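note to self — DONT lose this again. spent like an hour looking for the file last time. sequence + predicted structure for the chain T wanted, 133 res
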Amino acid sequence: MESVTEIIVKEDHIDPIGHVNNIKFVSFLEDARGDWYRKAGISYEEMQKKKIGTVILKLDIMFLKEARLGDSLKIITRPKKLGTKSFVFEQKIFNQLEEPITEVTVTSVMFDTILRRSITVVDEIVRKFSNID
């Protein structure tokens, strides 16, 4: 399952250099993963009710091109690899010209928020990883 999230770059996304600050990209990527979870049937709100969540184990970002005020960004989030307690997303950000802005690999771990430990990946997520190569 692939998710597409669109963001328009606003003034509060811009740093003193005049482009999107790297920490804002991390926030954009988090929002896009939230969109993927919602579409998978397990939103952040639903996870909170179940006392579970995800934590980032590894975040690998390659910044390819800057994004500037007014740019229209498209974030594509797709499953890459499924483990027992962890899973990997591939995320790519493109601008309005379809130029690649970033290439990202995110490894997440399923987490029990009460016991504070990793748990088996929930079925809602597992089902959406079932068709990956």
